[in-house]
Amino acid sequence: MYKLFRFILFQFDAERVHYFVVGLLRLIHQIFPFRAIFRAIYVKKDPKLAVHLFGLDFENQVGLAAGFDKNAAYIDPLSDCGFGFIEIGTITPKAQPGNDKPRLFRLKADQAILNRMGFNNDGVEQAILQLKARKNKHIIIGGNIGKNKWTPNEEATQDYVQCFEALFPYVDYFVVNVSSPNTPNLRALQEKGPLLELLSTLQSLNTAKPKQKPILLKIAPDLTDTQLDEVIEITFETQIAGLIASNTTISREGLQTPKAVVEALGAGGVSGKPLTKRSTEVVRYIHQKSAGKIPIIAEGGIHTAQDALDKFEAGASLVQLYTGFIYEGPGLIKQINQALLQKQKQL
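User: That's the sequence. What structure does it adopt?
Assistant: Structure tokens below.
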């Protein structure tokens, strides 16, 4: 049934469809009979799925990645899909419109998405209002934070600090996003010097709090092994809680979509199936190089339960969906949780 729904939706502009779908989820959430039926179909509840990580209790190991709910406006309806945690953002200090439209494209032949959204969001104060208004206070919420487009890299740390301090009472963990390819020069902050300064500053603020909250770093899949080694070194040095691997890729290698079509769409990061292998490789590399001491949330190309199991086998502690959620629907979350329960039985 979802495939038919997807076929119809995929005939229309991707960004417009996104807002139609989240609006539909909100409507279902507000009408109890529809909500009960929806949850009965898609949600898998079992205490055996719960995990304790970063000092937090996750109902299950499958989360929603940042980018889907940029302003924390749809937490309640999205929680009806069965996620164990939801990551909001990327949130910047001030509201910004993002890049010019169109900026979100489907690469159907690749089961992928190309986006150059550019951290479009309503700013940190609006996100706080939405977080205060949510009814579901139990689901774990991550706050993915970034810098405004007009903020020079030399002053970027202050943008992250502002978001960190403002959101601290309202989210359960933080993600530092320096790996989006859609904000000019942002990825330069992944270099060792700027990254060490940024994470050290945030962690100093964190440790000064009466109760600390986990800080994670989201990295690009395009990093070399040498750069990954530096990330591992910085993670240990700053004692942040873990890593998210990975963000979208700027690579166009191996795409089935004709090259001319991809080039005509322009710049942006690719997510979905083309990332499946590389993101798993990054997870495995970090897990092995760190001797399993760095917790990893795996993201990238998870379209089946087996894709998620492969990420866990590579060393991930949790997984996040975005493009797979769009292509496969909320049934994917239930399928992954059922596969995890089945694996527990086999052990």
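The chain has a mean pLDDT of 98.
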